[in-house]
Amino acid sequence: MDELKSMAVSQNTTLVAFAFLYADCQNTEYRKEIISLEEICKPVQDINCNGDWVDPGRDGDLETDGHLSMPIPPIDIEPIVNVQWPGNHDVAGNIQQVAGELRQIAELIEHRIVAQATRNLKKNISSSPSEDWKSLLSAEVERVMRQGVGLEYLPQERVLIALTLTLVKGVCEQAPRFLRNLFSAAVQFINPVSTW
């Protein structure tokens, strides 16, 4: 049972990270790279093991209880095109809500701190002969968290995740070719922290 819970948390982490990174992407190359990540975010089965995922290419079938078979994302959060959300409306809504909350926290983190941390991370990744980007990412996040971001009144788990995803987005908007590996490193880093 713990393995199923771990798989569910891992999948939710991936979907939340994807939703966070996808929102408001202006850079054309970055947008292409983020859309290419769609395959990573496509699960094979519902995290609750209740059945198959809904095919977003369909218009949605009307079920016998009168509900559409596709989840409808909340209006106030930009929907993600072509992402297969879990068939469970509550899970899909929760994933988008968490991503939205993380974006709000990211907006509160001082721009100067994020800009410097983004430059540091990009420089370290660019000059790193190895591909241990998870270590580079976690070191930079931990450095910024020790320095303080001025959001002590918020749950620190969420601040850490928002900062991590903000750094990933900042680096990848400047160097979109890093997205796939840095996305993977970020999901590995925040997965043990997250408790969706």
Automatic annotation (TrEMBL):
A Pfam family this chain is assigned to: BID
Domain of life: Eukaryota
Broad class of where this protein is predominantly found: cytoplasm
Gene Ontology biological process terms, A to Z: apoptotic mitochondrial changes; positive regulation of extrinsic apoptotic signaling pathway; positive regulation of intrinsic apoptotic signaling pathway; positive regulation of release of cytochrome c from mitochondria
Annotated keywords: Apoptosis, Cytoplasm, Membrane, Mitochondrion, Mitochondrion outer membrane
Location of the protein in the cell: Cytoplasm; Mitochondrion outer membrane
GO CC list: cytosol; mitochondrial outer membrane
Name of this chain's protein: BH3-interacting domain death agonist
